């Protein structure tokens, strides 16, 4: 069934398509009009209206070896309320990478991602869409919020959501600060997760976020478990796998010491 777009939405879509990927177009439109259009819908709109974004065939794939598809999509899905430092820490834990704050900061800049952590604008600031209170498009005023009014989609602190990677996230602070729930739960019982370690789910279920289903392992132990298939959907088997990984890593370290 064809989608009927309001006139002001159609005009805005046409104005932002040039030079942008369709996921970016969807994001801009959804932010401005509080809608939920998808990347595919924006692509179909452009195709049906014979509008080209001008990126060319050689720039359709935005992914790279440094930021592969799963990382790219995770950042675009979760950057709101998350600064480069926290995002780099998340990526390193979730994807077993070694991103720096500066790498993620550059990624944010290259893709025009604003975490919103500092929402204050300087006097005379012009929004990215070029509209101010004096030149809003027809009907634009009805999308503005009154002082103290919250978006109808506002979610209070303590709300939960599931990320594109299947991890449960919990809102910990306004306006839009989210953290991985497993880290919040672990810290409530044991304090910060030590550097060089990761949390694993003993039954393999990322949505079963209870302290009894969480265990911390070193990066080396995690690698050993993944290499040798030592992670199971049975918590007891996984605990045994952790012990085996610890023994294997200890033996490997001793062997290297003897060789040296």
Q: Describe the sheet with the most strands.
A: 3 strands, antiparallel
- How far the N terminus sits from the C terminus, by CA atoms, comes to 69 Å
The DSSP helix count reads 9
Poorly predicted residue ranges: 56-60
Spatial strand sequence of the major β-sheet: 1-2-3
Task: Give the topology string: H per helix, E per strand.
Answer: HHHHHHEEEHEEHH
Shape: elongated
Given helix and strand content, the structural type is: mainly alpha
What is the residue-averaged pLDDT?
81
- The percent range for helix content is 40-55%
How many β-strand stretches?
5
List the helices and strands and how they pair.
Blueprint: H1 7-16, H2 22-33, H3 39-48, H4 69-78, H5 84-95, H6 101-110, E1 160-162, E2 168-173, E3 177-180, H7 181-190, E4 197-201, E5 214-218, H8 219-227, H9 235-259
Helix pairs in contact: 1-2, 2-3, 5-6, 8-9
Domain HNH nuclease: 180-221
Organism: Anaerocolumna xylanovorans DSM 12503
Protein name: HNH endonuclease
């Amino acid at each position: 069934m064809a989608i009927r777009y309001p006139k002001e939405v159609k005009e805005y879509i046409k104005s932002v398509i040039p030079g942008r990927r369709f996921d970016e177009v969807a994001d801009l439109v959804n932010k401005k009009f509080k809608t939920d259009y998808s990347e595919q819908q924006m692509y179909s709109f452009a195709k049906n209206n014979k509008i080209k974004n001008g990126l060319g065939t050689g720039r359709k794939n935005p992914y790279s070896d440094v930021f592969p598809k799963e990382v790219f999509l995770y950042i675009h899905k979760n950057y709101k309320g998350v600064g480069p430092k926290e995002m780099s820490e998340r990526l390193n834990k979730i994807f077993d990478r070694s991103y720096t704050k500066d790498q993620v900061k550059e990624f944010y800049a290259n893709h025009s991602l604003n975490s919103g952590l500092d929402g204050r604008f300087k006097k005379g600031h012009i929004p990215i869409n070029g509209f101010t209170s004096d030149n809003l498009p027809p009907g634009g005023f009805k999308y503005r919020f009154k002082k103290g009014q919250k978006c109808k989609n506002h979610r209070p602190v303590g709300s939960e959501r599931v990320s594109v990677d299947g991890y449960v996230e919990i809102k910990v602070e306004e306006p839009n600060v989210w953290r991985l729930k497993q880290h919040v739960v672990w810290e409530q019982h044991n304090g910060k997760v030590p550097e060089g370690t990761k949390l694993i789910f003993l039954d393999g279920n990322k949505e079963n976020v209870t302290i009894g289903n969480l265990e911390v392992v070193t990066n080396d132990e995690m690698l050993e478990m993944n290499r040798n298939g030592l992670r199971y959907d049975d918590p007891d088997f996984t605990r045994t796998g952790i012990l085996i990984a610890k023994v294997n890593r200890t033996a490997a370290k001793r062997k290297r010491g003897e060789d040296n």
